[in-house]
Amino acid sequence: MNWLMVISGAIVGAPLRYLTDRAVQARHDTAFPWGTFGVNIAACAGLGFLTGAATATTVPTALQHLIGPGLCATLSTYSTFSFESLRLAETGAKYLAAVNAFVSVSAGLGAAYLAAALASRALA
Q: 20 with 35: CB under 8 angstroms?
């Protein structure tokens, strides 16, 4: 049953990542990968909220699998983040590459922490 929940979440997460990335990137005329940045921060916040909720109360295992390794894991994309950072550096935008790496990691950790704290407080 757990693997069905992971697959169900992934069926939503992967296309949502692609469509969101394309929609966001189409609205910005910049080399910075705003679409990937956005989906990665959203996934970090979702996983943080799930973690905080599971800490504060009982979250059914099936729901944890649906949201965690299903939806959020396929919504986020470390490989695209890495590729886009490398591409920025290779095309001479080394500053943007460094900003992307630093801000993405910092914002992802911050989003996960804040969402976990929010869930812990809201559900306690």
A: yes
